[in-house]
Specification:
Pfam families: HTH_25, RodZ_C. GO terms for molecular function: DNA binding. This is Cytoskeletal protein RodZ. It is a single chain. By secondary structure, this protein is an alpha+beta fold. It folds into three domains: about 80 residues, lambda repressor-like DNA-binding domains (434 Repressor (Amino-terminal Domain), Orthogonal Bundle), CATH 1.10.260; about 100 residues, no CATH class; about 110 residues, no CATH class. The protein contains seven helices and ten strands. The strands form two sheets. It has a six-stranded mixed β-sheet, with no helix packed on it. Strands 6-3-8-9 form a four-stranded antiparallel β-sheet, with no helix packed on it. The longest helix is centred in the middle third of the chain and has 70 residues. The chain is elongated. The two termini are about 50 Å apart.
Amino acid sequence: MEIGMRLKEAREAKNLSLQDIQDMTKIQPRYLRAIENGDFSLLPGSFYARAFIKEYAVAVGLDANELLETYSHELPVTEEDHSIDYNRVQRSRKDTNVSEKSSPIFSLLPTIIVVILIIGVAFVIYLFVTSGMFTDNNNTPSANNTEQSGDEVKVRSDSDDASANNESSETTEKGQTNEDGSDQEQSTEESTSAEDQEPTLELTQFENDESTYDFTYAEDEVALVVSTENQNWLEIEDSNGESLFYGTLQSSNSPVELDVSDLEQIYLRFGEPTTISIELNGTMLELSDDISSPTAVQQVWINMNQVTE
């Protein structure tokens, strides 16, 4: 017996119509009919097929996990591998774009440093020559006056040479200090720009209390935090349908914190949406204003998109 026929028999045994199942699961009748007929190509994707079948099984009183395991050969293969490859291609393209944009700056950086050094050395030589010429000009009148009047001759002392050398050293140190300061400021600005990038959680699709979000982030670790002010039925699964949380979330055991750093997609199903709070790395998930009612069961899919530098 096929999995669709098994679900249909269980539904008819409970005298339930497809409309009754839709009211219980929020799954559209055309998808329910496709499941009963075994036509999974009409479903949005392989992940949705498993999620919808699980909801259908719970609604008609069947063990969802046992049913999925028994008829696993009939279910479509998940597209997780393709999604991983696609994300890797996107990341490699982003890396290429970043390197192409930043390469001209880094290629000019050595030239800029050399030019600054040359200007600094030329400035030091200019100061040294100017200082020597000024000293010679001051000594010339004294020498002429000595020859004419016979007064004492003014000779350039060792202290004057030491003073000139000290001025040259101080000028060189100032030039090096300015260069070091500019390099430190540039590195500080680059590190600050990477750290200031905030994660975003954007609603991309909403229909019949089913929402899809894109979470874009740069951190290596991602924490999912779910809390409630009252009590909510809560299910959390990964893209393979593996359960991460299944049960009633109450204020006494709130919040629930999960490490979802290695997941490509997260699925959540919960009731009483106005009393529940969902965060990813401190970014709050905002539900659509078009939810059918404050007590309607919500289904949420979150696509994880990490941005690499």
